[in-house]
Amino acid sequence: MHLLHLLATSGLALGATVTQLTGQVAFDIAVGPKPPFKPIPPSTPRTKECVVKSGGGGDDTPHIMEAVKACNGGGKVVFTRGVKYTVGTAMDLSKLEHVDLVINGQITFTNDVAYWQKHGFKHNFQDAMTFFQLGGVDVNVYGGGTLDGNGGVWKGKSPRPILFGTIGLKGGRISDLTLRNSPQWFHLVKDSQDVVYSDLRISGHNGNTDGWDTYNSRNIVIQNSNIDNGDDCVSFKPGSIDILVQGLVCSGSHGISVGSLGQYRGKTDIVENIMVYNVSMANASNGARIKTWSGGHSAGGGLEGGGGSGRVANVTYENMRVSKVDSAIEITQCYMEKDMAKCKANPSKVTISNILMQGFSGTTSGKKNTVGSLTCASAAGCKNIVLKDINVRAPGGSKAFSCNNIHPSGVSCA
Fold first, then answer.
1. What tens digit of pLDDT does each residue of 370-410 get?
2. What is annotated as the active site (predicted)?
C-alpha cells in the first residue's frame, strides 16, 4: 500500500501548514527561440499553500506526503529555503492534479542501497528504476533548490535509481533546480506529454548518468540548462516524438543521441520529429549522434542485442558548437558491431531518413583522424541525410568524415 493512501485513510496529521492564497498567477515558462511542436497547455492558478516540515535529519517522506495530500488539487507544496530534507521512502506522486512543488530547500535521498533496490519504482525498460514517480495533470516543480541522489554509494551496484522520474505526466513545467549525484540517469521521461524542462543545473559522473532519457513521450521541451555528466546529455529512446531540445551547455557527455534503437528483437522502435537547436558540447565523445543496432546479434561495452525494427525520421540538429569532442557527428546502423561485413550481411531493420545536420562549428579532440563518422549498413537503410555548413576541424586541420554506404554532399569522406 502506497504511503499516500495510508495517509489518506489513517487520518494521520503531521501539521502541514496550510495557507489560503488569493490573486495568484499561474506558473509558466517561455519556450524559445524555437517553439514547441504543439502548444503547452497553461497551468491554473493555485489557491492554497502547504509548507513541508522537516524532521531534522530523519525521514521526511511522511511530512512531504502529508503536504501533498493537503495541497493536491490546486495548491503549492513548499520546501523551505535553507532547510535540508531527507527522503528514505519511495514516493508515489503519480496522481497529482493542478499542484506545484516549490523546492526552495535541499532534498537528499538516503544511501540505503538495499532498501531502494527493493522498493524503488521499476519501469520495465532497460532496468530503469526511480526514487519517486511524478505524474498526473498540470504539475509544476521549481524553486531554485537541490535534489541530491547520493550517487557515490552506488558505485558497482545494479540496478541504480534514476534521480527524477516523470512518469505519466500530462502538462507540466520543471524549472530552476539543481540536480546532482544521481546514481543513474538524472531524468526518465516516460509516458508523458506537454512537459517543459528549463533552467536546470545538472552535475554528476557516477557511471551511466544521462541528463534526460525520453521514452514513449510526446511534445517534450528541454531547454536553457547546464549539464556536466558522464553519459548522453539527452537520449531519445523508443517512442520519442515531437521533442525540442535547445539552449543546452553540455560537458563530459556522450552527446545528444537518438537511440540506441533496434536492440530488442521483435520490438519496433520509432523516434521522429526531433529538433536540437543551439547546443554547446565540450569534452565529450560525440556531438550529434544517431545509433541503431544491426539486424543480427552484436555485443560490446557490456551491451548486447540487435534485430529489432523501426525508424528514425525527421531529425534536425542545427547550430551546434563543439570543443574537444571525439566525433562531432556520428550516424551508425552498426552500433556495437565493429565488423562491417557482419553488419552488411545483417543490415539494420531500423531505417534512418530525413536527417538534417547544419551549422556545426568548433574542434575535435584529435582522438580520431576524422571529425565524424557516417556508417549505414546499406544504401537503402539511410535516405535523405543532409549535412550543411559543417565547419569542424581536427587539431591537425582535417575536416574529413569516415563514411560507409553514405556520402552526403557538403562534407569530404576520408
1. 999 999 999 899 999 999 999 999 999 999 999 999 999 88
2. 254
Closest-CA residue to 348 (of 265, 408, 268, 262): 262
CA distances from 241 to 130, 244, 272, 275 (A): 23, 9, 5, 10
Q: Number of helices (H) and strands (E), helices first, in the chain?
A: 4, 28
Sheet strands (E) in 17-74? 17-20, 48-51
* Amino acid (1-letter code) at residue 118: K
Q: Which of 123, 187, 254, 297 is catalytic?
A: 254
For 32, other C-beta atoms within 10 Å of its C-beta total 12
Which SS3 state, helix, strand or coil, does residue 93 take?
strand
Give yes or no for a cis peptide into 41 (omega within 30° of 0). no
Give the pTM.
0.95
Question: Parallel, antiparallel, or unpaired for β 17-20 and 217-229?
Answer: unpaired
**3-state class of 154 per DSSP?**
helix
Contact 215, 125 (CB under 8 A): yes
**Backbone CA torsion sign across 260, 261, 267, 270:** positive
Report residue 56's pLDDT band, with 50, 70 and 90 as the boundaries. confident
Q: Which numeric CATH code is attached to 77-404?
A: 2.160.20.10
98 is catalytic: no
What gap in Å lies between CA 390 and CA 252, rounded to an integer? 22
Q: What are phi and psi of 8, to 5 degrees?
A: -70, -30
Q: What are phi and psi of 89, to 5 degrees?
A: -135, 135
Per-residue pLDDT for 360 more than 70? yes
The DSSP string of 171-196 is EEEEEEEEEE--SS-SEEEES-EEEE
